[in-house]
From TrEMBL, chain A:
<keyword id="KW-1133">Transmembrane helix</keyword>
<comment type="similarity">
    <text>Belongs to the PpiD chaperone family.</text>
</comment>
<dbReference type="Pfam" id="PF00639">
    <property type="entry name" value="Rotamase"/>
</dbReference>
<feature type="domain" description="PpiC">
    <location>
        <begin position="266"/>
        <end position="362"/>
    </location>
</feature>
<dbReference type="InterPro" id="IPR027304">
    <property type="entry name" value="Trigger_fact/SurA_dom_sf"/>
</dbReference>
<dbReference type="GO" id="GO:0003755">
    <property type="term" value="F:peptidyl-prolyl cis-trans isomerase activity"/>
</dbReference>
<keyword id="KW-0697">Rotamase</keyword>
<dbReference type="InterPro" id="IPR046357">
    <property type="entry name" value="PPIase_dom_sf"/>
</dbReference>
<keyword id="KW-0812">Transmembrane</keyword>
Automatic annotation (TrEMBL), chain B:
<keyword id="KW-0143">Chaperone</keyword>
<comment type="similarity">
    <text>Belongs to the YfgM family.</text>
</comment>
<dbReference type="GO" id="GO:0005886">
    <property type="term" value="C:plasma membrane"/>
</dbReference>
<dbReference type="GO" id="GO:0044877">
    <property type="term" value="F:protein-containing complex binding"/>
</dbReference>
<dbReference type="InterPro" id="IPR026039">
    <property type="entry name" value="YfgM"/>
</dbReference>
<dbReference type="InterPro" id="IPR018704">
    <property type="entry name" value="SecYEG/CpoB_TPR"/>
</dbReference>
<feature type="domain" description="Ancillary SecYEG translocon subunit/Cell division coordinator CpoB TPR">
    <location>
        <begin position="15"/>
        <end position="214"/>
    </location>
</feature>
<dbReference type="Pfam" id="PF09976">
    <property type="entry name" value="TPR_21"/>
</dbReference>
<keyword id="KW-0812">Transmembrane</keyword>
Length: 625, 225
């Protein structure tokens, strides 16, 4: 059918059809057929825009690079896994897309010219301080972009940045806000405080066995011990095998001889020359004679080369030709050079290039390492390579033996190894080899735990494997009372002491509320008391719990107010607030004022920015695939 | 045009069709192409204008990020650029941002009335929700600073507060503090706290501080735990 269509497509009708088809191309261009990440799947849809899998993959790998750069090897591997990074990376891309949409809705944009200027001035695309088109293309492609795609990406980055930057640069702090902020943050307070210590009360309380027993019965879930196993682990590794391998001196010597064969034994010579090119031999001889006379007259080789050499490339560098190990220059040249001693120059030598007077500038005779120097390294290398072989054989036998029997010590004996006993550990792991999650998992696998088999061979790393055998199984249980009685007693004592302390505190407070003198009341009970004045809310000389209580209180009608706080050690502090002085903006130095303005503006702008973006997101239709 | 017609017949049919419909087709084509080109030209013009605004905006942000405190000359340059943006590109976000920038400068110069005027203009121009919320919150702060707490309260009393509810509530609290109505202020600050996301510790601390200054021991319940 297509054939007949083609046959008929001639003359006026054809012209008409071609014109018709060409209309869309005039307006939309051919590239509309080829642009876009058509092949790659969708990762998310943000309103009408698509975040592609490609973009997401790039973002993930960028994130991984940044994390690795920042934290190096300290990060556990699964921190950098695709699954871990995917969520946050996608979130970032979606937020970015939202910003771009917000910016576009506000008709934010950037001209092609400004975009080009930015790209051209980016240090990453420059070579020797100048924009390099080749480097640009290479970098862009290595990031996985087309040139057009990269430009579009940068364009979006810029308008997205403009969009949020606008929130930041227009943020302000009114004098009213600043005054309120200073009033509160720079506020100082005066207060009395009496410390009721925990320790003396603790020594007076008694906890009976019956109470401990009752607590134990009621709180069984707190004394659960998870299921544990004790195990034996048989580890096979290359290093242990290598340690047992004896390497004889003869073997070392043979290997040394072998190694020395491949050493570069030819000395390396640095040569310089004075070249004489001439029409004919006579002219050449005349010039050569002049050179030789100059050299014999005591003029340095460098000076003569500069003055008389016909080799334009080397004469300003003292005739220096660089290094040879005997095969760089023509044979005649090399022969003459080899005959020289350092600093000497040769008789004229003729090659295809002309006549040379050659100087040996330096001689570097490679020195062979001695057997004594090399022996330790050779010994290790030989042992390692033999151990590798034995490791592979032993691994095969381990697999077989471990499969055929359940007696791990017998397997160990066959292989000439020793199984390690590992003390009981739970599913969350233990010490030594039991810290390895693979060992733990193997120990708790059904056929190892229940049926008493030896586990399959676990590869711990490329030069170490292990098998696991459970020797004892401890089911989950509740710890016996005897084991936890002390703990419970301590806990109950503390509870009781706290109650006593609270009572004492209440008594103290009501005395003070009734108008008793703090000093007199405290001294009567033998408590320490203090008065603190002009204390700010972030004063680190005071217990934070105390300050927090002090600043929670308000003076009512200029009357004192009372409160209490427990310190970290369990002591109770009873306090009486007697004075509050608001911070005064006018009292601040210019410097302090400016610092506060910046801090407050930063805090306000951060909150505004967060709300700005959250609002944008809340109103969007986002689909994640 | 069926396949069994000869080329002559096809041509004949085409000619007949052309005679009947040719004129209207040409008129339609001219209208279509003309309209498309006109639309394109208009769009190009709009785009060029927005590009100009973009470059001016870049100039402003570059000046402002140069140092924390702008020199007098730079402040004047920024103001000049911003006025131009506002006048010529009021229909873009650049214009709105320029007005916000002028408001910021006015606040810093202590000219609250002119800051209010700029923000009112920006509020009228702002097309999208998040921008107008931002402008409204800032305008309310300027009103409070001018002693117009009542006006500020009216301004922020809107139904749909989007993700700005905590910020609205905070400025509401500030307005009540200015009116010395501690009970209402406490209520507003509590709402501001409630509207925060859990991980915003710094801001939570600030609002709690304000709350404690109008309502004693409000925060102790949480601390007891």
């Amino acid at each position: 059918m297509l054939q007949s269509f083609r046959d008929n497509l001639k003359g006026t009708v054809a012209m008409f059809l071609v014109l018709l088809i060409s209309v869309p191309f005039i307006f939309f261009g051919v590239d509309s057929l080829f642009t876009g990440d058509a092949q790659s799947g969708k990762a998310a849809e943000v309103n009408d825009d698509i975040v592609t899998e490609n973009q997401l993959r790039r973002a993930i790998s960028l994130q991984r690079d940044q994390l690795t750069q920042r934290f190096g090897d300290q990060l556990p591997v699964d921190f950098l896994s695709d699954e871990r990074l995917r969520g946050p990376a996608l979130d970032n891309l979606i937020n970015r897309q939202l910003r771009v949409q917000g910016a576009k809705a506000g008709r934010m944009t950037i001209s092609d010219k400004a975009l080009d200027e930015l790209i051209v001035s980016a240090p990453g695309f420059q070579v020797d301080g100048k924009f390099d088109a080749q480097r640009f293309t290479y970098m862009v492609q290595s990031m996985g972009y087309t040139l057009a795609g990269y430009r579009e990406m940068i364009r979006q980055e810029i308008i997205a940045a403009q969009y949020t930057q606008a929130v930041a640069v227009t943020g302000f702090v009114t004098e009213e806000q600043l005054a309120q902020y200073v009033r509160l943050t720079e506020q100082t307070r005066d207060f009395y405080w009496v410390t009721l210590p925990m320790a003396p009360v603790l020594s007076t309380v008694n906890v009976s066995d019956a109470e401990v027993e009752a607590f134990y019965q009621e709180n069984q879930q707190n004394f659960q011990v998870p299921e544990r196993v004790a195990a034996k682990v048989l580890e096979l590794n290359v290093a242990d095998i290598a340690a047992d391998i004896e390497i004889t001196d003869e073997q070392v010597a043979a290997q040394y001889a072998e190694n020395m064969k491949s050493y570069e034994t030819e000395p390396v010579r640095q040569a310089a020359h004075i070249l004489v090119e001439a029409e004919d031999d006579a002219a050449a001889q005349a010039k050569l004679a002049e050179v030789q006379a100059a050299l014999q007259g005591g003029e340095s080789f460098t000076d003569v080369a500069a003055r008389l050499s016909d080799d334009l490339g080397t004469r300003d560098a003292g005739g220096d030709l660089g290094f040879t190990s005997g095969d760089t220059f023509p044979e005649e040249f090399e022969t003459a050079l080899a005959a020289l001693e350092v600093g000497q120059y040769s008789e004229p030598v003729k090659t295809d290039a002309g006549w040379h007077i050659i100087q040996l500038v330096a001689l570097d005779q490679a020195e062979l390492p001695t057997l004594a120097e090399e022996a330790p390294m050779i010994r290790v290398a030989l042992a390692e390579s033999q151990a590798q072989q034995r490791f592979v054989e032993a691994l095969e036998r381990l697999k077989e033996e471990a499969y055929n029997t359940d007696d791990i010590d017998a397997v160990a004996q066959t292989l000439g190894l020793q199984a390690q006993a590992i003390p009981a550990f739970s599913r969350s792991g233990g010490a030594g080899l039991a810290a390895d999650p693979r060992v733990v998992e193997a120990a708790f696998a059904a056929d190892v735990l229940k049926d008493g088999h030896i586990s399959p061979v676990l590869e711990l790393n490329e030069s170490s494997v292990a098998v696991v055998k459970v020797t004892q199984h401890f089911p989950a249980e509740v710890k016996p009372l005897a084991d936890v009685a002390d703990l419970i007693t301590a806990q109950l004592s503390e509870q009781k002491a706290k109650a006593v302390l609270a009572e004492q505190g209440e008594a103290m407070l009501s005395e003070m509320r009734a108008g008793a003198d703090v000093e007199a009341a405290a001294t009567a009970k033998g408590f320490d008391w203090q008065i603190s004045r002009d204390v700010k809310r972030n004063d680190d000389r005071y217990d934070p719990q105390l300050l927090s209580s002090v600043f929670d209180l308000m003076l009512r009608d200029e009357q004192p107010n009372f409160g209490q706080a427990y310190t970290e050690d369990g002591d109770l502090i009873v306090l009486k607030l007697v004075g509050v002085k608001d911070g005064d903006l006018a009292a601040l130095t210019e410097e302090a004022r400016n610092a506060l303005v910046s801090r407050l503006r930063y805090e306000i702008v951060s909150a505004e920015m967060a709300a700005f973006e959250a609002d944008l997101k809340a109103g969007a239709e986002i689909k994640i695939y | 045009m069926s396949a069994h017609l000869t080329e002559e017949e096809q041509l004949e049919a085409l000619k007949r069709w052309w005679a009947e419909n040719g004129k209207s087709l040409i008129v339609a084509a001219i209208l279509g192409v003309g309209g498309y080109m006109g639309f394109n030209a208009w769009q190009d013009d709009r785009q060029a204008s927005a590009e100009m605004a973009s470059s001016k905006f870049e100039d402003i942000t570059e000046l402002m990020s140069k140092q924390e405190q702008l020199s007098e000359a730079d402040t004047a340059t920024v103001a000049h650029l911003a006025k131009g943006l506002k006048a010529d590109h009021g229909d873009t976000l650049y214009g709105v941002n320029a007005a916000m920038l002028l408001a910021k400068q006015a606040v810093e110069a202590g000219e609250l009335a002119s800051a209010e005027a700029e923000l009112r203009w920006a509020l009228e121009q702002s097309g999208s929700d998040n921008v107008s919320h931002l402008v409204r919150v800032r305008l309310a702060r300027v009103l409070v600073a001018q002693g117009k707490a009542e006006e500020a309260l009216t301004l922020v009393a809107i139904e749909d507060q989007g993700a700005f509810s905590s910020l609205y509530a905070e400025v509401k609290g500030d307005a009540y503090v200015a009116k010395k109505d501690n009970a209402k202020a406490a209520e507003a600050y509590q709402a501001a706290l409630a509207g925060l996301s859990g991980n915003d510790m710094a801001r939570a601390g600030q609002i709690r501080m304000k709350l404690n200054s109008v309502q004693p021991a409000a925060a102790t319940e949480e601390k007891g735990a």
